[in-house]
Design brief:
alpha/beta; eight-stranded mixed beta sheet; four-stranded antiparallel beta sheet
């Protein structure tokens, strides 16, 4: 057989795209796409040098060892990556993050997919903000979930409406029986004796580390987590104050650290507890999907009081809260740390603690979406539950190689430098873009977004303006594209709203486009007043 005549079938030239944004036309010059919710060329071109340094560093390590970075990864994710990520997040959050509670994902959407597909069944309820991230709505529809929209205002989800709908759709009989499952493991006096002896002798460091014992019956229905306190072990797991060699010693399978209070105590209470989790009382009666910080599309941040109320509701109705905090580190203020994340409101010391909150993060918005790498910060029962799922038992952890390279990016201090740089770039864009809108939007329009973080600006147009119709006009006459508000609502609310992004274009292109957008809004309102149906000529 003459193989010289055989050639592979390839895509036509018109279909040879390098990315989703390329396929959507965002790199063409015929339109300015203010709907692009990802980093643009100015940001992405900062990454090759970073990745080159990190890759060279990590490959030297692999050559000197047995190259296990290329092996099937641990179900929960590469331990070195989770360890370094915990240190990075602890600094950014201003409070400790425990590496044992980090679960490696392929990005925030991957984490949401894992949560829904592995823990919930078709027909179960998911409560969402109205409006919310439109592609999350599509994911929930893919799994045939019952999507319940909940009202929002400038401070986030409206608690009264959330309670009303939880009472309507979720039975309290599924709730967690905290009184019978949270117990004191040892007395106050016994704990104080251990604590005093440890500090007086200084010799029990290796023997008294916090131990996590997972016991189960044959079918793994019940999981018993027993926590034995030991201050030095907990302190070892405090990334804010310890060096890497000490931290590594607390990452064995027999240790599980806890968070640190702002006051500096390396443990959260003066008592230990025994928490008995079983399939019957896990907080899985329904799902609440929230974007607590720098919301997509509104830009709002959930008020602290409402964060506390959500935890109370989640415990009362035994529901799991998925906090999509992908924009959490992009805060545009003078503070050194990000706002308090929703996960940290779910205090493990509370007598009715269940472990109701998942915090989802990703490198997509702070680094590059092509990495397909992120993390879930989860309660301990969920780490155990996820590890036993077949998808991880068969394939191992997600994106092990990339996690190894990103581990080096963090270790070398390159991630912190990059995040600081992009935060300044995005902050400058957000400030100038919001200023232009406030000055140039025509009468009857309102910039709703507080513009304090994240990617997006949420604009309210006059009630008479249909954003879908306006988009047709703006794309044809002004070469501008954006997102119309109804896409973010499962019930098609917000028809007179639009969302624009500040992330993709350099500041000069962005500001020119926003000025054009204001002119387009003014002209569209004028023409609509003259002839309400004039927009129909733009329908192809």
């Amino acid at each position: 057989m003459d193989t010289s005549v055989i050639s592979p079938t390839i895509d036509a030239e018109s279909q040879r795209f390098n990315s989703v944004f390329h396929a959507k036309g965002y790199y063409r010059r015929n339109l300015v796409y203010l709907n692009a919710g990802g980093p643009g060329t100015e940001i992405l071109q900062m990454l090759p040098n970073i990745m080159k340094q990190a890759t060279n560093y990590r490959m030297m390590q692999e050559l000197e060892s047995d190259a296990q970075l290329f092996q099937y990864g641990l179900e929960q994710g590469n331990w070195q990556f989770r360890h370094q990520l915990a240190r990075f997040l602890s600094k950014e959050y201003g409070e400790n993050v425990c590496s044992k509670q980090l679960y490696q994902t392929g990005g925030s959407t991957s984490g949401l997919w894992m949560t829904v597909s592995l823990l919930f069944r078709p027909g179960m309820c998911v409560f969402v903000e109205d409006p919310t991230y439109y592609l999350a709505l599509e994911l929930f529809q893919d799994f045939s979930m019952n999507i319940i929209p909940v009202q929002t205002d400038k401070d986030g989800i409206v608690i009264e409406d959330l309670r009303e709908k939880l009472e309507k759709y979720v039975s309290k009989s599924n709730g967690y029986q905290s009184s019978s499952n949270v117990q004191s493991d040892i007395s106050d006096s016994e704990w104080k004796t251990l604590h005093t002896e440890e500090h007086s002798t200084g010799q029990k460091e290796s023997d008294n580390r916090t131990k996590c014992v997972l016991e189960s019956n044959g079918d793994r229905d019940d999981v018993l987590l027993t926590r034995i306190p030991q201050t030095d072990a907990l302190r070892l797991c405090s990334p804010l104050s310890q060096s890497p060699p000490l931290l590594e010693s607390c990452l064995s399978q027999s240790t599980i650290p806890t968070s640190q209070l702002p006051g500096g105590s390396p443990y959260k209470s003066d008592k230990t507890r025994k928490i008995n989790w079983s399939k019957k009382n896990l907080p899985l009666s329904a799902l609440i999907y929230l974007i607590p910080s720098y919301h997509n599309p509104t830009g709002s941040t959930l008020h602290p009081e409402r964060c506390e109320q959500i935890i109370k509701l989640a415990r009362e109705f035994s529901v799991l809260v998925f906090a999509d905090e992908v924009y959490h580190l992009l805060h545009y203020d003078d503070k050194d740390v990000a706002p308090k994340r929703l996960f940290s409101y779910d205090n493990m010391d509370d007598p009715d603690y269940q472990g109701n909150v998942i915090s989802s993060g990703s490198f997509s918005k702070i680094f590059g979406p092509g990495l397909r790498l992120g993390w879930l910060e989860v309660p301990e029962w969920l780490v155990y539950t996820m590890q036993k799922k077949g998808v991880f038992a068969s394939g191992g952890g997600i994106n092990t190689y990339t996690a190894g390279i990103m581990c080096s990016v963090i270790t070398l201090g390159l991630l912190s430098e990059h995040v600081n740089s992009v935060r300044k770039i995005y902050q400058a864009r957000m400030v100038t873009a919001s200023t232009v809108l406030k000055n140039e939007l025509p009468s009857g329009c309102h910039l709703v977004s507080p513009a304090k973080g994240g990617y997006f600006l949420w604009i309210e147009l006059p009630a008479s303006v249909n954003a879908i119709h306006f988009k047709l006009f703006a794309e044809k006459e002004y070469k501008l594209s954006f997102m119309s508000g109804e896409k973010f609502s499962i019930v098609n609310n917000f028809k007179n709203f639009i969302r624009i992004s500040i992330s993709f274009y350099p500041e000069d292109v962005l500001l020119a486009a926003i000025s054009e957008l204001c002119m387009a809004i003014r002209e569209f309102i004028q023409k609509t007043n003259e002839k309400e149906s004039f927009w129909k000529k733009y329908v192809e």
